[in-house]
């Protein structure tokens, strides 16, 4: 089993930045791919970014060039640096582990709310 706990969400003005973190615990040594997904009210869950154990990364079209995913394997942490935020980025952001590239795996965190508003 793998447990994931997100943090770092909050209220930010348009154009601002936030850094999300995800702390992993449990049987994390067998996990290669980790990623971030988000869900806005009345919308399906959306792929944001993914990173593999050898640091290959991929991004959703709407965040490419603004968001950066990274991981610290030793500290069992996953990060998402979000820059140039706009109202369309408002959503609950979820950490995910155990997926196949952009296909999410079975492990999810509880989510952290990001609200972009003036």
Structural description of this entry:
The protein is mainly β and 118 residues long. Helix content is 0%, strand content 50%. The strands form 2 sheets. Strands 2, 4, 5, 6, 9, 10 and 11 form a 7-stranded mixed beta sheet that branches. Strands 1-3-8-7 form a 4-stranded antiparallel beta sheet, with no helix packed on it. A hairpin with a 4-residue loop joins strand 7 and strand 8 (77-82). The mean pLDDT is 95.
Task: Furnish the topology, listing elements before pairings.
Elements: E1 2-7, E2 10-12, E3 18-26, E4 34-39, E5 46-51, E6 57-59, E7 67-72, E8 77-82, E9 91-97, E10 107-108, E11 112-116
Parallel strand pairs: 2-11
Antiparallel strand pairs: 1-3, 3-8, 4-5, 4-9, 5-6, 7-8, 9-10, 9-11
The SSE order reads EEEEEEEEEEE
Average pLDDT score = 95
Low-confidence stretches: none
Oligomer: single chain
Describe the global form: globular
Distance between the terminal alpha carbons, to the nearest Å?
40 Å
Count of helical stretches: 0
Number of separate strands: 11
Q: Roughly what percent helix?
A: under 10%
Radius of gyration: 13 Å
Largest sheet descriptor: 7 strands, mixed
Question: What would you call the structural class?
Answer: mainly beta
Strand content: over 45%
